[in-house]
Amino acid sequence: MEYEQEYLEDLCSKVNLLEYAEQTLKFHKCGDEYFCSCPNHLDRTPSLAINPKKNVFVCHSCHAGGNIFNWLMTYEHMTFDSAVKKVAEMTGSDLKKMSSPCDSIKYYKMLKRLQDSHSPKEVNRELLSPDYYDQFVDEAPQEWIDEGMSPDMLKKYSIRIDNRTNRIVYPIYDNNDNLIGVKGRTRFKNFKDLKISKYQYYKKIQTNDFFVGMHENRQDILDANEVVIFEGIKSGIKLSTFGQNNWLAAETSMLNAEQIKILLKLNIKNVIIAFDSDVALDKIKDNVKQLKKFTNVYVVYDRWKLLGEKMSPVDMGKDTWEKLLANKIRI
User: Fold this and answer.
1) Residue 122 within any structural domain of the chain
2) 223 and 316, same domain (yes or no)
């Protein structure tokens, strides 16, 4: 069933996500958020956080996140319709009043929400000086070279090393090419035993209203009239090593509203989702419902089980990538 977005947002606001989650999980307060171990994976250092003010959650390890509907789909394994029905029952809401009476009305309302200038949230963040990044060692990490990434491509995307924390780092730019942060990936293989986060932002980003790779690849994307969306930068650099540069990294396995707006502004013909093998196809389909109204959306799907668990479509080499790409699914 299709629902009016305004009704869904109103329905979400009627449920206190933290109170609901505390029925089954034990949280501890840290700053403005409440943390616990994510039940979806081994999580020795609690990485699942709920922000009561925003009424949303995010797992900083597996990158699950969203509102009460996403919570039910992620941790109670419900379909989207089942999640909506449960929240409606919890809040005593009438689903009949939530369904969209007309697809054309729904289309234009969605277009207005995504493109109106007032719709993006105001983000006040510090812009960093370019020389902020000079503190890191300009050296290609050997382990990434061993994974098949060329030193030239690592140089192109400014991959460096932070010897102080033993992390591989890369810069984060906003959609206007301003340096807004640095993200680091630990080099310690036993990071869980050491209780160290796998990934870390050096400056608070506030929200993922950007794509990694846009700073370097914007013109390649426009020239190709097509973009490939990966979860992380490593996959993108591997694709560049194959000779294809029209990619972006979402830094998560779910596109948010700000990222969808960025893709719409590119005004390109095709968007190809190439998330890791553990991201369910149904989850991707639900995530891009809005986007596919305005552009062609495809998913690189491993129907032959060529990839191992949690592998990117590029991890098995160029030939496997090209086979998966050639058999992508339009949704």
Assistant:
1) no
2) yes
Please give the tally of structural domains in the chain. Answer: 3
Q: Which two tokens stand for residue 103?
A: 């697809």
What type of residue is 35?
F
Of 101, 127, 159, the domain-final residue: 101
149 and 245 share one domain: no
pLDDT at position 107: 46
> pLDDT digit string (tens) for 160-173?
999 999 999 999 99
All residues at 6 or more sequence positions from 215 whose CB lies less than 8 Å from its CB, including other chains: 171, 173, 177
Q: Are 265 and 292 in contact (CB under 8 A)?
A: no
> Among the residues of the chain, which ranges form H helices?
5-13, 17-21, 68-75, 80-91, 103-115, 142-146, 151-156, 214-224, 233-241, 257-266, 281-287, 318-326
271 closest CA partner among 312, 306, 313, 224:
224
C-beta separation of 257 from 70 below 8 A: no
Torsion, Cα 105 108 111 117, to 10 degrees, reads -110
State the residue for tokens 């992620």.
74
Q: What is the number of alpha carbons within 13 Å of residue 225 lying toward its C-beta? A: 3
Q: Which residues contact 177 (CB under 8 A, 6 or more apart)?
A: 215
pLDDT in tens, 215-257: 999 999 999 999 999 999 999 999 999 999 999 999 988 998 8
Question: Which structural domain, as residue segments, surrounds residue 280?
Answer: 214-330
CA distances (Å), origin 323, targets 120, 263, 271, 302, 316: 38, 25, 18, 10, 11
Nearest alpha carbon to residue 305 among 286, 288, 323: 323
CATH number at residue 165: 3.90.980.10
Same domain, yes or no: 87 and 26: yes
Asked whether residue 193 falls in the same domain as residue 232, the answer is no
Q: What is the average pLDDT value for the chain, to the nearest integer?
A: 88
CB 179 within 8 A of CB 173: yes
Same domain flag for 197 and 253: no
AA letter at 60: H
